Amino acid sequence: MSDHDSPISLQGGMNPAKQILSAEEGGHWPVPEGTILASGVRRSAALSVDVVIVTTILMVASKWQIMNAWNVTLWASADFHYAAAMAFILFVSHWLYWRWTGLRHSRSIGQRMFGLAVIAEDGSAMTSQMWDQRALRKLIFLIPIANIVVGIMEVRRVFSRHTHQSNIDLHVGSIVAHADSLPPASRRHIK
């Protein structure tokens, strides 16, 4: 038996299951022991809270005029520029909100309410450029019908990947996890 190669080898002191998981998906960030990755349901709920917060502030500030961003008849009329202006304000406001809360707190208010944090795949804080890209890609969730289709696809992808990463996460290089489950070195920048 000494000349027989074992079908299971422990390279680097890691068990076979962890080797498979770390090699899967192109070798993304190896999740530290004890880290609880965010589910698609919790992430969707946090996103919904964020959209409600920003949209409510915009509705109060504009005396409900921001609702014209979704007014199909206004978009089809000669005054479509008014709806386009409201849509522009809506998109810019959400982008600024996600970017600012990300840079300042490493998570949005909705993510904070659900105990989530966003970090880079290597466990470090995300850069300004990463927050810009993440905020820009989340704007798709403000477009009616597209938000439902893309939302369902993203939740399915979160459930199908061992890292629970959506396509936005994969593009940006981020991981969403329960903040309290992260190692102290990875959560020191989270507020």
Short structural description:
By secondary structure, the chain is mostly helical. It is built from 9 helices and 2 strands; from the N terminus they run H-H-H-H-H-E-H-H-H-E-H.
Ends distance: 56 Å
The chain-level structural class is mainly alpha
Helix content: 40-55%
What's the tally of helices? 9
Average pLDDT across residues? 84
Shape: elongated
For the report, how would you describe the main beta sheet?
2 strands, antiparallel
Rg (CA only): 21 Å
Low-pLDDT regions: 15-27
Adjacency order of strands in the biggest sheet: 1-2
Tell me the count of domains.
1
Could you characterize the architecture of this molecule?
53% of the residues lie in helices and 5% in strands. By secondary structure, it is mainly alpha-helical. It has one domain (34-187). It has a two-stranded antiparallel ribbon with strand order 1-2. Helix 2 (40-61) packs across helix 4 and helix 4 (80-105) runs antiparallel to helix 6 (128-138). It starts with 15 loop residues before the first helix and ends with a helix.
Helices, strands, pairings?
Layout lengths: L15 H8 L16 H22 L10 H5 L3 H26 L3 H5 L2 E5 L7 H11 L7 H15 L6 H6 L1 E5 L5 H4 L4
Antiparallel strand pairs: 1-2
Question: What key attributes describe this structure?
Answer:
single chain, 191 residues, mainly alpha, two-stranded antiparallel sheet, 53% helix, 5% strand, elongated
